[in-house]
Design a protein that fits this description.
Blueprint (H helix, E strand, L loop, with lengths): L2 H33 L3 H32 L8 H25 L1 H8 L5 H14 L2 H17 L10 H19 L1 H17 L2 H5 L14 H31 L6 H36 L3 H28 L1 H9 L6 H15 L2 H16 L4 H25 L1 H27 L4 H23 L10 H25 L3 H16 L1
């Protein structure tokens, strides 16, 4: 893929992911307005987290192990037979796993929410049994995305969340009041299935499901399994950090899990749009460069990707912390979600937001290791950050309540990101750490000055209806962005220079 096509693909994916996230926020806003924050929403979010976390672990592992291997065969005669074998094998494994999870749902939920008892615990088991079969569809959806990414189709995988969000929004608004929280549970289960079904036609067009044979014994299957197991363990450990907050949250006051969940949805927006769009395009590029042994270009891609991650995520991190209350108020505060819920959710969002920068950097370093077919090192660091997360949650839970759980998550990510940078340096040699540090301090200074400027606008954001709040908040965000990018320009952040040069060339050609 050329530089121009990579940028174009990243742009399209970014727009689609942004629209998808907007629908995602509409979904969360509908849930918040209908059900607010209560022990019922706590229970739903805890039960829904199990298939979602397992999917994220499987999804990351599948695509990470599948893309480098399948990429060597997808345009060869045996490519479709190989892909079909993987679909059938994975489908069988996920089906068996889903059945076992449904059977042992009481034990699973006892691990997830050990602080629950009585009616709340029983309801969590019922909800989990309805939603856990969705793991089959979510896992196959991840495999479909991997196939389509190899085929350079980044658009369809970016659309998977749209039908899921629409089904949940329609259900909550139309029948949520009549059927209560269980309407949301069933809608979530249907949404899981749709994420797979929407991609099936695009995969079928490549002839995979019409393959004349199934390559059960293809040597690539063994290679995938060897790569898959460490990645799966590592990815599951990464996602366990999310589950850790809910485990500890079940021992705190009612509504704590709801506050953490609503805050986490906002916190995940930049990662779900900018980070994912960047990694979606960078990862296949890194895989190809390493496969061709173009090590200097590989390291340059890692360096530039890290610099871009820092330049983009640092100001968003600071801005989200400063604007936490207006953001939560705009998205959630209506009907059953009151002003107190806004303040409590914003409190969690401040601490979660601290982890935006290291989270994006760690994900990029993970992909860099995976590109070299090293799946064990990221697994070790996943264990490290999860253990740190558990310890920090235990340490900070008492003084900061659920805010301590969010802060523990963020602090563990900083330690993990620094450790991974050192390990990657040993693995591939110098990849421009001094240049990355130069970008870091300049982006940090520009972001802090931007944050100070935005802080003075907070009185301007108080009060008003939804439209007025949205306009005011949009104006402040645009102001903050202008301040940041002007400072970045005067501080001569290299990544900004590269972006501006590409923009000028495009405008010149236009």
């Amino acid at each position: 893929m050329t530089g121009r096509s990579m940028i174009k693909s990243a742009g399209i994916v970014t727009v689609l992911l942004f629209l998808s996230r907007l629908f995602g926020f509409a979904r969360e806003a509908a849930i918040a307005a209908r059900y607010g924050t209560s022990w019922l929403t706590d229970t739903y979010f805890a039960a829904a987290s199990v298939p979602s976390i397992l999917f994220l672990a499987f999804n990351d592992a599948i695509k990470t192990a599948f893309i480098p291997v399948y990429g060597d065969y997808h345009d060869k005669e045996e490519g479709n037979s190989l892909a079909l074998a993987v679909f059938l094998l994975l489908g069988g494994i996920l089906l068996a796993a889903s059945i076992l999870l449904v059977i042992f749902a009481p034990q699973v939920m006892r691990l997830v929410v050990p602080g629950y008892s009585g009616t709340q615990y029983d309801l969590s088991v019922t909800m989990a049994r309805i939603m856990l079969p969705g793991l089959l569809f979510l896992g196959l959806a991840g495999l479909c995305s991997g196939v389509l990414h190899i085929k350079k189709n980044f658009i369809i995988p970016s659309l998977t969340a749209f039908p899921n969000n629409l089904v949940i929004i329609a259900t909550v608004l139309l029948v949520g009041k009549r059927f209560g929280i269980m309407a949301l549970v069933w809608a979530t289960a249907v949404g899981f299935a749709l994420q797979f079904l929407i991609q099936v036609p695009a995969v079928a067009r490549h002839g995979i499901f019409a393959a004349q044979s199934v390559a059960w014994h293809h040597p690539a299957i063994k290679r995938m399994v060897i790569l898959l197991l460490p990645v799966l363990i590592g990815s599951a450990t990464v996602e366990l950090k999310t589950l850790t907050d809910k485990i500890f949250g079940s021992f705190l006051t009612e509504q704590s899990i709801s506050y953490l969940n609503y805050a986490a949805k906002i916190y995940s927006l930049p990662g779900g749009i900018l980070v994912l769009a960047l990694l979606t395009v960078l990862y296949p590029t890194m895989v190809e460069l390493y496969y061709q042994r173009k090590m200097q270009e590989f390291k340059e891609t890692v360096c530039q990707g890290t610099g871009l991650m820092i330049m983009l995520m640092f100001p968003i991190m600071v801005g989200m912390m400063v604007l936490s209350t207006p953001i939560v108020r705009l998205i959630y505060e209506r009907a059953a979600f009151d002003a107190q819920a806004t303040r409590n959710t914003a409190y969690a969002l401040i601490f979660y937001s601290l982890g935006l920068l290291p989270s994006g950097v760690m994900l990029l370093f993970n992909r860099a290791f995976y590109s070299t077919k090293d799946t064990k090192t990221p697994m070790y660091f996943s264990f490290l950050t999860t253990l740190l997360n558990v310890f920090l949650n235990w340490l900070l839970m008492k003084p900061l309540a659920y805010g301590g759980l969010a802060l523990g998550t963020s602090l563990s990510l900083y330690i993990g990101a620094v450790a991974m940078a050192a390990a990657l340096h040993r693995k591939v040699g110098s990849f421009g750490v001094s240049r990355i540090l130069d970008t870091l301090w300049k982006a940090g200074l520009a972001s802090l000055l931007m944050g100070a400027a935005v802080w003075f606008t907070l009185p301007f954001l108080a009060g008003g209806g939804f439209l007025l709040q949205a306009v005011r908040l949009g104006m402040v965000i645009v102001l903050g962005a202008l301040v940041y990018f002007l400072l970045a320009y005067f501080l001569k952040i290299r990544e900004l220079d590269v972006a501006l040069s590409m923009l000028k060339r495009r405008l010149g050609r236009g």
